[in-house]
Amino acid sequence: MAERRASVARTTSETKVDATVAIDGNGDFGGATGVGFLDHMLAQLARHGLFDIEVNAVGDLHIDAHHTAEDVAIVLGRAFSDALGDRQGIQRMGDATVPMDEALAHVAVDLAGRDYAAFDGEFKQDRIGDLETSLLPHIVGSLARHMGAAIHVRVLAGDDDHHKAEAIFKALARALDQATSLDPRRAGAVPSTKGTLTD
User: Contact, 126 vs 191, CB < 8 A?
Assistant: First the structure.
């Protein structure tokens, strides 16, 4: 089996981002985005999805974290998509419900090649650490768009915003791990009646 790994770079007048994703990894995260809480969430994505992820970003953080967070999600989504290739043999769909103390989040993913994002959750604070909470749905939407995935997020319970965000990313990790997993019964076939998940 070919290694499911990809690297993507993107440079704009606002940011410079490069990311490497190995689907069949050990759960290692490396690099830095300049936004500490975003790094913490990416580390959850790597560890709980058993993906190896490295992301390095330099952005216009003197303005705010918006451009950096958005472009990290764009590049990471593209790296996942490239690493999946033609998506032959994958489970395609996955979902997970994850608690984080009093918080509870559910995430469902379909790697259909089409993008859609739904985010049902509210936060009490304007920011968690150095990341604006308004960016969390935007990060999920950018990931979905550039990964070619439908991602549905629901925060089912919680009082602490940090816990809610962490539960979301842990659930996303586990749902993606399930969806990207290879099913030996498919014998390399694309899990779609139309025969493709990339067109």
Answer: no
pLDDT in tens, 140-182: 999 999 999 999 999 999 999 999 999 999 999 999 999 999 9
Query: What digits encode the pLDDT tens for the residues 6-28?
Result: 999 999 999 999 999 999 999 99
* Cα gap 153→171, rounded to integer Å: 9
Q: Is the pLDDT of residue 195 over 90?
A: no
Which residues, in sequence order, are CB contacts of 65 under 8 Å at separation 6+?
35, 38, 59, 130, 131, 132, 135
Other CB atoms within a 10 A radius of the CB of residue 199 amount to: 7
Kind of pairing between the strands at 116-120 and 93-100:
unpaired
Share of the chain above pLDDT 90, in %: 88
Residue 198: pLDDT band (50, 70, 90) is low
Distance CA 55, CA 72 (A): 8
The CA distance from 38 to 93, in Å, is: 25
- Residue 92, helix vs strand vs coil: coil
How many CB atoms sit inside 10 A of residue 115's CB? 17
